[in-house]
Amino acid sequence: MIKRAKTKTVSVGPVKIGSAHPITIQSMTKVSTSDADAVIAQIKTLAAAGCQIIRCAVPTAADTAALKKIVPASPIPVVADIHFSAARALEAIEAGVAKIRLNPGNIKTRSEIFSIIDAAKANKVAIRIGINEASIRDLGQDTPPARRTALMLKEMRSYIRLFENRGFNQIVLSAKSSDVTRTIEINRALRENFDYPLHLGLTHAGIPEDAAVPTAAALGALLSQGIGDTLRVSVAGDPVEEIKIANEILTSLGIRPRTEPELIACPTCGRAQIEVVVLARKVKTILASIHKPLRVAVMGCIVNGPGEAADAHVAVCCGKDKAFIYRAGKKIATVSTKDILPQMQKQITSAAKKL
Prior knowledge:
Structural class: alpha/beta
Oligomer: single chain
Strand order of the largest sheet: 8-7-6-5-4-3-10-9
Shape: elongated
Low-confidence stretches: none
């Protein structure tokens, strides 16, 4: 079992973030916030997919005005994403958001920072101090990659000091980079230096098929060490994909119990005497209608087949012109190639009913 690093608890509306509470999944709306109806519809879709906290960009006064309609209609806490403008932060707090995100790279005036802190404190609004590597670099005299982790830590330390001196501790920290190694390095450094909850993410990760692996590498490394209390997977495209990837990362690490089917398939080699990939895809189609934590294995030969079958609810181990069907590790049938799929569908349906 992974032991979480101990942190303070921060309230984001009814959701608690910190080591004493389950790791939460976040996302961000991807339509104009001024279009309140479109935002509300997207939030509801994301909430149904498993999103627990939602963030909205608010670059204009029209966006913060729309929050007055969005916040009460949202089934999950709303966070306002603030850049450059203290006015937008104050408007968002007034509109009732549960948390705001501030970027030290573009809100630097002490008086403005204090006005935001005071308003947040008065309204019981949490604040995420969210550093992005790209936004704190001085491109005129750019910081070399080897020194950017230290730069992010320095910026975070100075910003936190302002909050603590103002008596505000409802703080969540995040430091993001598009580089996997620096993302791991800076979050380790944050955990070593502060006991505030950490929001994990790999920024600008790419389209879903390109983002999944580096995101899993960065977040998985941190989560496996007990680092991280909430996370957002950043992908270009449908935000529901962010929730799917985030949930799979947490499930794969055993941090969350599996609630959907898991399909195991051998990578195939010269021993396989059946088109394993074709069969696996057909089995996956069967599993699409199952919404239970069913483990199914599709194996191409007897080398690893029986072992995987022992850990699966349903398994098939294929040979030449025939296959062996397993239930809970026990071989229950030998079928011809043409009967594999009907038999798998029968056994999967039966096993799912018993879960």
